[in-house]
Every structure is written in C-alpha cells, then in structure tokens.
Design goal:
Blueprint (H helix, E strand, L loop, with lengths): L1 E2 L2 E2 H15 L1 H42 L13 H4 L10 H6 L2
Antiparallel strand pairs: 1-2
Length: 100
Amino acid sequence: MNFLGIGSLELLVVMIIGVTVVGPKRLILGVRTFKKFLTKLKEQRDYITELIIDEENNINEAIEENIELINPVPIKTTKKDKKTPKQDSGYSSEDNNNGK
C-alpha cells in the first residue's frame, strides 16, 4: 500500500506517534478534519478544471464561428496597391463621350 508516497509500515509509525502525542480522540477528529479538507480541495480542483474546459470550448466555438475572418495566409501587396489613387476630376470618359 502506498498512500501519499508513504508505505504501510511508515503510516503505522506515524499513526502510533500521533496517538501518543495528540491522543486518540483528537487524532480521530484531526483525521476527519483532514478528510474534509481533502474533499473540499478535490471539489475545488474539479471546479477549476471544469471552468478551464468550458472556457476552452467557448474559445473554440468563437473561432469556428468567425473562421472566415481569420486569414492564415498573409496578403501580398503589389506596387499597384501601394500607389496613391489619382485625384478624380469629377468627369469620367463616359461623360466626355456623351457630351459630344
């Protein structure tokens, strides 16, 4: 038997020392208190694990919903894209042809 890295003989020695130092009634009360503490600690661990998993699922759902907005391929810019647009004079070539 291996409990918290302590063998059965070592656990027996610790219990004997505990009974002689603390007394049998207080030792039982201490074991019960320690058991309650471990139970609450496990509940907190499970709660935190559940929160982390829920948040991970929420993030994954948000990513799946917005996958179109995510572009893993970088957009290449060309020299045409970098040029500033010409000033619009307000007239188009269609206006010039229609005016004749």
